[in-house]
Amino acid sequence: MRRFWFLKIAGMILVFFTAASALVMVLWNWLMPAIFGLVAITFWQAAGILLLSKIIFGFGKGGKHGHQHSTPWKHWQHKWHNMPEDQREKWKQKFADKWCTGRHETETPEFKKEAE
């Protein structure tokens, strides 16, 4: 009886993986050559892409069991909303100093001091 149960589950996984691979192949061949000029792929290449993406990005948790925040973004969103306003301003300034490249060198206070 156990063997039948195992075969049934394995068959369902195989059917799902086959359908998902076919979907990846159809969507890839429909979108990627037209948008990015890439070549069409075969079913087996689509299966490889699907498997590789699952290895890299994970197979999922199957629901919201076990962890309060299901994604890192939700964790930071929760943290941000519970952060005091003065700490938010410090984070904003730190982020702007490190990542915002819209400022030109001539706009920095150090450059203005050198120019005077």
Layout of helices and strands:
Elements: H1 2-36, H2 43-57, H3 72-81, H4 85-99, H5 109-115
Helix pairs in contact: 1-2
What does this structure look like?
The chain is an all-alpha fold. It contains 5 helices and no strands. The protein has 2 domains: 1-58; 72-116, no CATH class. Helix 1 crosses helix 2. The protein is 71% helix and 0% strand. It has helices at 2-36, 43-57, 72-81, 85-99, 109-115. The chain crosses the membrane at residues 5-28, 34-57. Keywords: Membrane, Transmembrane, Transmembrane helix.
User: Roughly how many Å apart are the termini?
Assistant: 87 Å
Q: Number of folding domains?
A: 2
Number of helices: 5
Tell me the structural class: mainly alpha
Q: Low-confidence parts lasting 5 or more residues at pLDDT below 50?
A: none
Transmembrane segments: 5-28, 34-57
Keywords: Membrane, Transmembrane, Transmembrane helix
Keywords:
single chain; 116 residues; 2 domains; 5 helices; 71% helix; flat; transmembrane; transmembrane helix; membrane
In short:
With 116 residues, the protein is mostly helical. It has helices spanning 2-36, 43-57, 72-81, 85-99, 109-115.
